[in-house]
Specification:
With 285 residues, the protein is an alpha+beta fold. It folds into two domains: 124 residues, lpxc deacetylase, domain 1 (Ribosomal Protein S5, domain 2, 2-Layer Sandwich); 158 residues, lpxc deacetylase, domain 2 (lpxc deacetylase, domain 1, 2-Layer Sandwich). Helix content is 23%, strand content 33%. It has seven helices and 19 strands. The strands form five sheets. Strands 11, 12, 13, 14, 15, 18 and 19 form a seven-stranded mixed β-sheet that branches. A five-stranded mixed β-sheet has the order 2-3-9-4-5, covered by helices on one side. α1 crosses α2, α1 crosses α6 and α6 packs parallel to α7. The radius of gyration is 18 Å and the shape is globular. The termini are close together.
């Protein structure tokens, strides 16, 4: 399979989930073997940051791309859409510190990419193939890779909250086509608890959160008037996040299994895989 990029540029505008800052984000075609490169065009130097697992700040609330003192927050939903649609090479220009949250899912990014168009390039796609089981743990949480002939993602959530306990907690998918990604996870939105909002605000977080971009959960119900998009939307969104986090290493062939995982564990697993060449091989598709 050849590498892919966009046919033309496309633009999105929105607010950052944590900063509350309005930003404009542009996706532009890039040559073969470029990878995914973000650029902060609001800064005098127009700092470029290539996406790799080692340029991800290890955070629990989002995936933040960082080079020196320059940061770009909350890249995971865009990265998930790029993974789901098979985009290997793209320049991401942004005029602020955080990728816009849009509606809290990856669907707006997916639509923008489809509108721009996707084209193949004269270079083979390189895939990170997992060759043995690799696992990272934190208390009862874990993230694991095992060998597989496809990219499989299985995530299980486990919350004591009554709203989440009454929903399907495990979602598994094989991401072998864009249609599978689109239909399985792309519309699943991020979620949060109303009682935690005040504390997040004290720490200058969730400044852009609203019912337009987050599933809000109070003591016994979902606050959003329209409810959930899927009965298992919470677990599906964790799959969406994992796909985006894992795509910081590029295309993968292997099975990811996560229990109570988040951005920190996902990134820790990638780092552990890449620190030992016995864990993987690179293959051309």
């Amino acid at each position: 399979m050849p590498q892919q990029t966009l046919v033309s540029s496309t633009c999105l505008r929105g607010v950052g989930l944590h900063t509350g800052v309005e930003v404009v984000l542009r996706l532009l075609p890039a040559p073969p073997n470029t990878g995914i490169v973000f650029k902060r065009i609001d800064l005098p130097e127009h700092i470029s940051i290539p996406v790799t697992p080692f340029n991800i700040q290890q955070s629990r609330l989002n995936s933040t791309l960082q080079l020196g003192e320059v940061k770009i927050l909350t890249i995971e939903h865009l990265m998930s859409a790029l993974s789901g649609l098979g985009i290997d090479n793209v320049y991401v220009e942004i005029d602020g510190p955080e990728v816009p949250i849009m509606d809290g899912s990856s669907a707006p990014f997916m639509f923008a990419i489809q509108t721009a168009g996707i084209k193949t390039q004269a270079a083979p796609r390189k895939v990170l193939c997992i060759t043995r089981v690799v696992c990272v743990k934190e208390q009862d949480k874990y993230a694991k890779f095992s060998p597989s002939q496809a990219f499989e993602v299985e995530v299980e959530i486990d919350f004591s909250h009554p709203v989440l306990k009454n929903t399907v907690s495990k979602v598994q998918t094989i991401l072998n086509t864009p249609a599978n990604y689109i239909n399985t996870v792309s519309y699943a939105r991020t979620f949060g608890f109303v009682k935690e909002l005040e504390e997040l605000h004290k720490n200058n977080l969730a400044r852009g959160a609203s019912l337009e971009n987050v599933i809000a959960i109070d003591d016994d119900k979902v606050v959003n008037p329209d409810g959930l998009r899927y009965p298992d939307e919470f677990a599906r969104h964790k799959v969406l996040d994992a796909i985006g986090d894992l795509y910081t290493a590029g295309p993968i062939r292997g099975k990811f299994t996560g229990y109570k995982v988040g951005h920190y564990l996902n990134n820790s697993l990638l780092r552990k895989v890449l620190e030992d060449k016995e864990n993987y091989i690179w293959e051309e598709e």
